[in-house]
Amino acid sequence: MPLIDTHTHIYLSGFDADIAAVLDRAYRNGIDKIFLPAIDSETHDRLLTLSLTPDDGRQTTDKRPSIYPMMGVHPCSIKENYKEELDIAWRYLNNGTRYYAVGEIGLDFYWDVTYRQQQFEAFDTQIAWAIEKGLPIVVHSRKSTYECIEVLKKHKGKINGIFHCFSGSLEEAKEIIKLGFCLGIGGVATYKNSGLREVLPQIGLSNIVFETDAPYLTPVPHRGKRNEPAHIKLVCEEVAKIMRLGYAEVAETTTQNALLKVFNIT
Ligand SMILES: [Zn+2]
Ligand SMILES: [Zn+2]
Fold this sequence. Notes:
By secondary structure, the protein is an alpha/beta fold. It is built from 9 helices and 8 strands. Helix 7 (about 195-205) links the parallel strand 7 and strand 8 (about 210).
């Protein structure tokens, strides 16, 4: 059963030198679909250049993963020019490309809270886009899990997606799942001090999807080096161990969750 990296930034310049090898390693490790969350206008074109979906008429015999684009403005890119950034993302969303989610969007109060209010506004605006276009959203939260949940509650039943890089409590996990979202699990699950090791067995597999967030959050034993989609295999192995389940079952269920519960691809 193939694996999916639901969240990876391999369009960033740190992959320029060896992107073909990165994609080859992903494919050889069983990752056959990759989803690219957007950041801001600095990188939207790079993201689209790398995207390659079966919709583009690609030969399915190609030995490389399909690469699916998302569009949105990351909360860390919500600054004084945020209205312009939103306008640009909206134009991309309407440029005829098929996007698979609005993302990544959300709230980040870790680095900077100067534009806290504008982050809320941009989050709301982009959720409205997703509802209008019938797309899922990919939510980024940092030091803002509670606030993100509160925002999503306002749209309960109208929106679904992924709460990416989830690392909250069991109670938060349950709330997010009740709102119709999957939890994005990645390299953090392999860290010894991660609370996920206790939370995961209690929430089960049915609302879990895998992600690398490459180049960040590299799993053990490669921690400290650049992350890449091939490492999804390590995440799957670790989650299987934590949950005391077989690798094949974890791979199959998380892949089906991503395809059917989130991205609507059959
Ligand atoms: Zn993120
Ligand atoms: Zn990300």
